[in-house]
Amino acid sequence: MNTDDDQIRALLDEAVSDVEPRRSLEEIRSRTTSPSRSRRPWVWGAGGAVLATAATIAAIVALSSSPGTTGAAPGPATQPSGPTSSSTDRPAQSVTAYYVVGTKRGPLLYPESYPVMGDAQVEQTVERAVTGQADDPDYGTLWPSGTILQKAQLSDGVLSVDLGGDLAQRPAGMSSADAELSLDQVIRSAQSAFRSRLPVTFLLDGRPTPTLLGLETAQPVPGSSDEKLSPVQVDAPSEGATVDSPFTVTGRASAFEANVQWELLQGSTVVTKGFGTAEECCTLSPFSFPIPPPPPGAYTLVVHDEDPSGGEGPAPWQDTKDITVR
Amino acid sequence: MTEARWDADAAVEQLYASHYRRLVRLSVLLVRDPETAEEVVQDSFVAMHGAWRTLREPDKGLAYLRQTVVNRSRSVLRHRGVQSRYVPPVVRDLPGADEDAVVSERRAVVLDAMRSLPDRQREVLALRYYLDLSEADIASTLGISRGAVKSHASRGVAALRSLMEDVT
After folding, report:
1. What are the two backbone dihedrals, phi and then psi, of residue A235, each rounded to the nearest 5 degrees?
2. What's the average model confidence in pLDDT over B2-6?
3. In chain B, which among 85-114 make CB contacts under 8 A with chain A?
4. Strand duo A207-208 + A200-204: pairing
5. What is the ipTM score, two decimals?
6. How buried is A155 (Cβ within 10 angstroms: 0-12 exposed, 13-18 middle, 19+ buried)?
7. In what order do the strands lie in the sheet with A318-325?
8. Nearest CA-CA distance, residue B164 and chain A, Å
């Protein structure tokens, strides 16, 4: 805290200190009417001030300090639905951000999909990828801490991603393979977000940049082949999902003889396991298989390709999701 | 925060009573137009009512409201195509200009400057300096990393300063 901060604080405070919204609780209520409602009559005070008891006010956490809210609130980031927004928000769809996961054979890209209702959330998909904000805690990013997304857009046939940070040269400790993977991560995420296969024009702080992470970016950069994608990817259920029993696992795998194995774990205990098959062998192709109903509870779902060690060693390629079965 | 067990209607009423005005003002810092801000916040309360079943606690309800207000403010700017065009303030050095005029001029300059910032910088500044949220809370509200919050904040402060040289 310093005088600079205090000055900005004072300026912002003053800038809106004359804003006195009209009362609109009744309007909000009229849009949330539920049939079974018992409520004491509300009392309006003079000048539109709401009368509420000190006790009920005290029960509410202060707006400026909110301990315990650091966990993401469910809903609003990805599902800002509401009656009046239907005219401006596009219908629900799904977009995919790609993240880097370290594996025993080096880092690979894993997809994570989100429902998207509006344009802001489309751009946010790219931002999540760059800043590594995946729901799955195993997923991350290699972009340096402090890297920001200035803007991502598809405009006039140009798919562009504008980043901010000290990013022209490759940071110490980053290999050129990691740099390529990082660009590919953003390219794939942007292509999914904007439903385009165009190569990506990279900008740095709003200007074209001859290099990014030490790689040539003067021209638009196309995505790479699928070899950097994880050979086993679970699309559903998603990380943290609550599913009804029985449920179906879907994803993509490139597996020997198209065999895909799965286990449901509680801690390190295998509660149940089985296998399914992808549509094709040895290339990334979809799989979908039902899981026989397990008892309700919290599980870790592990999906992996065939284990050459016969169950003794760790699986070579896998994706895991923490889920709750109800 | 487990002592309060409100239903969705009660949650709307209580959070409205304690936070409605502040959330509208937050939205004004983001979208500038007070009527648009009121719509954004009303919509957010309606959405919070719908989501209350999964929230159930006042602080989660408030976090949801904050996040929804920021997201909707951003959406509304895009959809309405209200492009920010920074117009340098007319420097008035009128002798005898009264205090009110000075303040209202300063308000306009600050709001114009905020509107001309990139979305994320504007959002981070509003959450940090108007709501006084911690870096961690800003990160979770915006769904970005703490490192990104830091970057946006320092860029935003620098940009705001240069836009407001005349009033600071």
Report:
1. -90, -40
2. 58
3. 103-104, 106-107, 110-111, 114
4. antiparallel
5. 0.88
6. exposed
7. A242-243, A318-325, A297-305, A259-266, A269-277
8. 10
